Amino acid sequence: MFGISYYLYYMRSVASDRCTALASPSYINFGISIFILFGILASYLSQYHRIIVRRSSEGISPYFLLLGTTAGTCAFANILVLPASRADLACCKEISGFGCFASLLGILQVGLVWSCFAGILLLFLIFFPRATALAPPEPLNSTPSYREALGVAGISATHAIITAIISAVIVTRYPEHLQAYANALGLLATVLASIQYFPQIFTTWRLKHVGSLSIPMMCIQTPGSFVWAGSLFARVGWQGWSTWFIYVVTGMLQGIVLGIGIFFELRNRKRRKEDESAGSLGEGEDTAREEEASSPSEVTPLLANK
C-alpha cells in the first residue's frame, strides 16, 4: 500500500508541472505531429490501393504481418500505459482542448499505425492468392497456405486480447509498476519489430519482385520513421526511450526492404524493355524476309506465274 500511495503522490506532483508545460504547446512540434499523422495515413492508403488493384496479396510475407501486428500491439499498449502518457491524459481536465489534443497526438499516431497495419492483415486474408484452373498451385514450401494466413490472424487477435487484459490489470491493481511494464512492452515491441522485416526480406529476395508490397508506402515510411522517433522523443524524452527507439530500428530495416525492392523493380523493368526491343527486332527481321521472298529477282523466271 505504501508503494501505491507514494506512486500516486509522485504522479500528482509530476503531473502539475507537466500540465503547465502542456497548456502552451509548441506550434512547430504540433505541425510536425499533424504532418506525421497524415503521412502515416497516406502511406498505408498506398498499400491498401496496391493490394486492392492487384486483387492479390502475393509477395507479402504472413510472418512479416504477424510480427508487425504483435509489435504494433505492444507499442500501442506501451504508450497507453506509459506514466508520461497517463499524465498527459490527466492534464486534459485542466488545460484547453487544443492543448489536450496536441498532447495526445503521440498516442493517436501509434494507435493509427497499429490499426492501419491490422488493416493490411485483413486485406491479406481477403485477397489471399488462391489456386485456380488458370493458375495452378505452386510447389509445396514455396508459398504460404491459407491455413497459415488464418493462423497468423488468430495469433495476432489473441495476442491483442491478452495484452489488453494484462495492461488493464497492471493499470488498476499495480500502478506503481507501470514504468517497468511499459519498458517491458517497449523492449518486446523493439525485438519483434527488429525481426519482423527478415521474413519480408527473404520473401522479396526469393520472388525477385515486390509483388503487392507498396514501394511508395516504404518511401514515405522509411524517412518518416526517423522523423516520428524524433517527435516522440520531444514528447517523452530519454525516460520514454522504449516508445521511440522502436521506430529508429524499423526505419533502418524498412530501408533495407525498400532498397531490395527498388533494385528488383529497376532490374525487371530493364529486362522487360530488352525483351520488347528483342521482340520488335525479331518482327522486323521476319517482315524483311517475307518481302524479300515475295519480290522478284534477277533469277526469277519471267514466265513463272504464267
In words, what does this structure look like?
79% of the residues lie in helices and 0% in strands. It has 10 helices and no strands.
Number of helical segments? Answer: 10
| Shape designation | globular
How many strand elements? 0
Instruction: Report the average pLDDT across residues.
Output: 81
Question: Structural class from helices and strands?
Answer: mainly alpha
The run of helices and strands is HHHHHHHHHH
How much of the residues is beta strand, in percent?
under 5%
Largest sheet: none
- Radius of gyration over C-alpha positions, nearest whole angstrom: 28 Å
Q: How much helical structure, as a percent, in the residues? A: over 70%
Distance linking N and C termini? 118 Å
Query: Can you tell me the residue ranges where pLDDT is under 50 for at least 5 consecutive residues?
Result: 1-14, 132-137, 298-306
Topology:
Elements: H1 2-22, H2 27-54, H3 62-81, H4 83-91, H5 97-103, H6 105-126, H7 146-173, H8 178-207, H9 215-236, H10 241-294
Helix pairs in contact: 1-4, 2-6, 2-9, 3-6, 3-7, 3-8, 6-7, 8-10, 9-10
Short description:
This protein has helices at residues 2-22, 27-54, 62-81, 83-91, 97-103, 105-126, 146-173, 178-207, 215-236, 241-294.
What attributes does this structure have?
0% strand, 10 helices, 306 residues, mainly alpha, disordered C terminus, disordered N terminus, single chain
